[in-house]
């Protein structure tokens, strides 16, 4: 599930045809502006991973089914594999790398470690980006709600009960 | 023998690589920044049987950014026919004896027939779609129904390691002696591992030296496999795999892609990243085969087994006799005079099936434990009581005593925690609103895998009192870096925060691929050996040194704790010893030689599984409400990570029971499901809270620390406990996996 939010493509500007050759775009990621040349077909996920060396968002399926690539665009969580990088111009992208400074992890990052809410760690950045958002949105009221709202993020190691424990712990701190 | 006081081993410490994983800093094999990277896309065959008659690559080659289109005309020949040997053997471990893109034959859909290499991932994918491939197609055989009449009994299966037939006594006589018999045929959909990280290899040549970043369960296995297939010396290949995004058997064998990535990188003279797509993960790394198992049990009125017959039919590839060893533990874990187990295979248009979590046991124990539930029902016995009446303290196949068991305690403590006592055995008697409620149980057993070759690790202590312990094993979610720091700390007599485990690189001492739940046992053995060898070296050095306060002390009486060697009132720290003697560090290599395969013990890990289900009386929906598993995995190295792995295994059992299925389209020979939207795995909403009980048993046979492993036992028996609970809830025996709404409605 994802929250409703504004459409990614701004409607108030005149549409200019770009591509199919690489075009220069500017992406604001974790508060830093990056200029990069990408073909219009490049996904936000591949732009992050292959062009900006931000590999925290993971490619699990590249088909929008697993949630491992979950990032925020203007604070709203999106699947970066189904989002074109080009459409993120003028929007603020937040990835796991920008969630908290390295020296001071987000409470949910701490809780994931403490509750052993992962094993291989590959789905973990996506789980955390989803979980932080759902707590902020008030969708972590009880376990049934957490289960439902976190079911877009597959954990093949099946750390689900521990993921719920970590989310509960942070929910109850705040 | 000097001593330390174990304090770290077993503690539920947080993962040492936890912050690397939660912050996104952990780098997996597709995430190594290398300048000038090119991208390889594997083109798979559209047909499942026949041959490729031509590939017109002109349109693809004309595309911007395309560096090469490699087909059998342009890709080099492999140096040697791949052998099929399980990666546990510690040798080269290609997943099948067939290597693609060498001739025009098509054995299975998705079989690689070409590689497209381009300067971006998008361009490689796009150009691949422009290839015009022509085929000569023949009708494929892929399903049980198509292959049943073609079946044969193989002499051996599983890379030659397991006989196709095993017997004791006379099963026909045993069935004649029986007062009661039950007979059931169980069918299983094929399963795909689907780790969240698809397989990936990044290959980089520097002259004749090859560097591979590979998502693998064994970096050495990748090194040995690529060395043999490319015909280049081991000394020229280095494989790194620090973080691996899950495997579950899909990265246990070294399938074609690492070798193809190396070939592609050589062809274009640039580093190449080959990342399989999710769809390709269904046709590139093996799978758990579709299968049918028949179990026949005979028993006396008192519930003593007189005969077990366990037969299996499954498809294998055109080139290998492979079946997961489902017919194994059923011969071992219950006292029964007469046993027959046999495999039948037929040639099908698939790649060779492979290991998938609890390979064999997850499916074989399902059939056996459902059959026992049925027998208990027939006899009016409690399912646990029936198992206790057939309990054996020896391996029923060899007569050798178990090296350790703990199974009785697993039944007792599991039943106690679950609240099994007082269960009304009558099916269909509990109802809560629309939901029919039932409970079920099953035994779990998973063999302690026999190892073939020495396992090594290296320990280095620096003069500042910190230590690094090294072994060439990757982390694919097991927590190996954490638990081995714990083992090293106790071996050296250091605080665990002073020990770092370095791994995932073939430049480090050799460890076989961590498969078959053997990783913790063999790596801890090597690490323990290295750490204690280094401790002995340092203690011996101190007591022989006139400058040391420990001079002349009996080394046996020296105790080391927190890096301080103490004998009576005299003491000296490791740091003081090294600094005083002007040594920047000290180092030792430890080696563990596994026990011989004919050791006179049965080596098995045991557990007991319990599940409660709710079945919607009208809609047939099955929800698992709670699960308890009690396991006796020998020594537990870290209670937190061990519990997590066992819990994950139990939830895999839930997936096996209710969700996970793939089927071949009989007409096209393609998998019907090839995405995570179609191949269902448990999601958060499917997963109940899971209660894991650890029962530690001492075992001085399996390995030095008595570690039997936790990677797979968690899954074994879960699907049976759930199926038995479904019967208890509804009165219906569903002999198909997964159990779906269609079966119950």
From TrEMBL, chain A:
Report keywords, A-Z. Answer: 2Fe-2S, Iron, Iron-sulfur, Metal-binding, Oxidoreductase
Q: Which InterPro entries match?
A: 2Fe-2S-bd, 2Fe-2S-bd_dom_sf, 2Fe-2S_ferredoxin-like_sf, 2Fe-2S_ferredoxin-type, 2Fe2S_fd_BS, Aldehyde_Oxdr_Iron-Sulfur, Beta-grasp_dom_sf
Q: Which Pfam families match?
A: Fer2, Fer2_2
The entry lists its GO molecular-function terms as: 2 iron, 2 sulfur cluster binding; metal ion binding; oxidoreductase activity, acting on the aldehyde or oxo group of donors
Where the record annotates domain 2Fe-2S ferredoxin-type, the positions are: 23-99
Which pathway? Answer: Alkaloid degradation; nicotine degradation
Q: Does the keyword Metal-binding apply?
A: yes
Q: Does the keyword Ligase apply?
A: no
**What Gene3D superfamilies does this protein's entry cite?**
3.10.20.30, [2Fe-2S]-binding domain
User: Which PANTHER family does the record associate with it?
Assistant: OXIDOREDUCTASE WITH IRON-SULFUR SUBUNIT, OXIDOREDUCTASE, IRON-SULPHUR BINDING SUBUNIT-RELATED-RELATED
Name of this chain's protein: (2Fe-2S)-binding protein
The organism named in the record is Streptomyces griseicoloratus
TrEMBL record, chain B:
Q: Which Pfam families match?
A: Ald_Xan_dh_C, MoCoBD_1, MoCoBD_2
Q: Which keywords fit this entry according to its UniProt record?
A: Molybdenum, Oxidoreductase
What positions does the domain Aldehyde oxidase/xanthine dehydrogenase a/b hammerhead occupy? 23-139
Instruction: Give the source's domain of life in one word.
Output: Bacteria
Q: Which GO terms describe its molecular function?
A: iron ion binding; oxidoreductase activity
Coiled-coil region(s): none
SMART domains reported for this sequence: Ald_Xan_dh_C
User: Which PANTHER family does the record cross-reference, listed alphabetically?
Assistant: ALDEHYDE OXIDASE 1-RELATED, XANTHINE DEHYDROGENASE
Name assigned to this protein:
Xanthine dehydrogenase family protein molybdopterin-binding subunit
The protein's organism comes out as Streptomyces griseicoloratus
Taxonomy of origin reads: Bacteria, Bacillati, Actinomycetota, Actinomycetes, Kitasatosporales
């Amino acid at each position: 599930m994802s929250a409703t939010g504004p459409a990614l493509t701004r409607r108030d500007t005149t549409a200019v045809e770009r591509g199919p050759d690489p075009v220069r775009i500017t992406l604001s990621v974790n508060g830093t502006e990056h200029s990069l040349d990408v073909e219009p077909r490049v996904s936000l996920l591949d732009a992050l991973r292959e062009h900006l060396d931000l590999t925290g968002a993971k490619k699990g399926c590249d088909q929008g089914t697993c949630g491992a690539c979950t990032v925020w665009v203007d604070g709203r969580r999106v699947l970066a594999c189904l989002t074109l990088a080009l459409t993120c111009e003028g929007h603020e992208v937040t990835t796991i790398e920008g969630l908290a400074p390295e020296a001071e992890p987000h409470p949910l990052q701490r809780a994931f470690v403490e509750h052993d809410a992962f094993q291989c760690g590959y789905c973990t950045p996506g789980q955390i980006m989803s979980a932080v958002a759902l707590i902020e949105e008030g969708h972590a009221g009880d376990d049934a709600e957490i289960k439902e709202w976190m079911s877009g993020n597959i954990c093949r190691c099946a750390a689900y009960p521990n993921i719920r424990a970590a989310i509960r712990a942070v929910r109850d701190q705040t | 023998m000097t001593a330390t006081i174990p304090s770290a081993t077993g503690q539920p410490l947080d993962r040492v690589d936890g912050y690397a994983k939660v912050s996104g800093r952990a780098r997996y094999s597709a995430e190594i920044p290398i300048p000038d990277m090119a991208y390889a896309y594997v083109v798979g065959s559209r047909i499942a049987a026949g041959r490729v008659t031509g590939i017109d690559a002109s349109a693809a080659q004309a595309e911007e950014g395309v560096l090469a289109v490699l087909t059998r005309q342009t890709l080099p020949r492999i140096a040697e026919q791949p052998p099929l040997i399980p990666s546990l053997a510690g040798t080269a471990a290609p997943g099948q004896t067939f290597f693609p893109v060498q001739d025009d034959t098509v054995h299975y859909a998705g079989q690689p027939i070409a590689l497209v290499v381009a300067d971006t991932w998008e361009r490689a994918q796009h150009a691949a779609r422009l290839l015009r491939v022509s085929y000569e197609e023949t009708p494929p055989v892929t399903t049980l129904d198509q292959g049943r009449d073609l079946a044969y009994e193989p002499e051996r299966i599983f890379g030659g390691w397991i006989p196709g037939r095993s017997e004791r006594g006379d099963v026909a006589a045993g069935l004649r002696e029986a007062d009661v018999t039950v007979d059931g045929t169980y069918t299983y959909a094929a399963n795909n591992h689907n780790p969240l990280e698809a397989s990936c290899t990044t290959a980089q040549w520097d002259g004749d030296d090859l560097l591979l970043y590979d998502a693998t369960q064994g970096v050495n296995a990748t090194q040995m496999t690529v060395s043999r297939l490319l015909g280049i010396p081991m000394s020229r290949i280095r494989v790194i795999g620090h973080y691996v995004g899950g495997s579950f058997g899909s990265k246990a064998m070294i399938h074609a892609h690492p070798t193809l990535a190396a070939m592609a990188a050589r062809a274009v003279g640039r580093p190449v990243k080959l990342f399989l797509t999710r769809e390709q993960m269904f046709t590139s790394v093996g799978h758990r085969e579709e299968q049918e198992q028949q179990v026949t049990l005979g028993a006396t009125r008192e519930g003593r087994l007189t005969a077990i017959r366990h037969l299996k039919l499954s498809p294998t590839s055109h080139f290998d006799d492979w079946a997961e060893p489902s017919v194994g533990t059923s011969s071992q874990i219950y006292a029964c005079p007469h046993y027959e187990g046999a495999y039948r295979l037929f040639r099908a248009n698939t790649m060779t099936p492979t290991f998938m979590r609890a390979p064999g046991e997850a499916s074989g124990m399902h059939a056996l434990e459902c059959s026992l539930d049925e027998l208990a029902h027939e006899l009016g016995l409690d399912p646990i009581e029936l198992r206790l009446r057939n309990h054996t303290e020896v391996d029923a196949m060899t007569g050798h005593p178990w090296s350790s068991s703990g199974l009785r305690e697993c039944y007792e403590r599991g039943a106690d925690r679950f609240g099994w006592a007082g269960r009304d055995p009558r099916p269909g008697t509990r109802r809560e609103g629309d939901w029919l409620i039932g409970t079920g149980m099953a035994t779990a057993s998973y063999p302690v895998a026999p190892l073939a070759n020495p396992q090594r690790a290296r320990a280095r202590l620096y003069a500042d009192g910190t230590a690094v312990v090294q072994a060439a094993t990757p982390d694919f979610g097991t927590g190996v870096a954490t638990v081995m720091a714990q083992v090293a700390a106790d071996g050296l007599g250091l605080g665990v925060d002073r020990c770092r485990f370095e791994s995932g690189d073939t430049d480090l001492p050799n460890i076989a691929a961590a498969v078959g739940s053997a990783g913790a046992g063999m790596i801890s053995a090597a690490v323990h050996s290295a750490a204690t060898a280094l401790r002995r070296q340092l203690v011996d050095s101190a007591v022989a040194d006139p400058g040391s306060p420990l001079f002349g002390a009996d080394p046996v009486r020296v105790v080391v704790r927190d890096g301080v060697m103490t004998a009576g009132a005299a003491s000296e720290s490791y740091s003081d010893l090294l600094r005083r003697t002007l040594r920047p560090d000290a180092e030792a290599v430890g080696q563990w030689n596994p026990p011989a395969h004919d050791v006179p013990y049965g080596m098995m890990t045991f557990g007991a599984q319990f599940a409660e289900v709710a079945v919607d009386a009208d809609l047939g929906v099955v929800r698992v409400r709670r699960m308890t598993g009690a396991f006796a995995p020998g020594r537990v190295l870290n209670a937190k990570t061990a519990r997590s792995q066992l819990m994950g295994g139990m939830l895999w059992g839930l997936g096996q029971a209710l969700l996970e299925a793939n089927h071949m389209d009989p007409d096209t020979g393609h998998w019907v499901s090839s995405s995570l939207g179609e191949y269902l795995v448990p999601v958060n909403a499917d997963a109940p809270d899971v209660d894991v009980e650890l029962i530690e048993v001492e075992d001085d046979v399996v390995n030095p620390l008595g570690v039997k492993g936790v990677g797979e036992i968690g899954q074994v028996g879960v699907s049976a406990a759930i199926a038995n609970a479904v019967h208890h809830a509804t009165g219906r025996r569903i002999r198909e996996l997964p159990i779906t709404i269609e079966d119950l409605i």
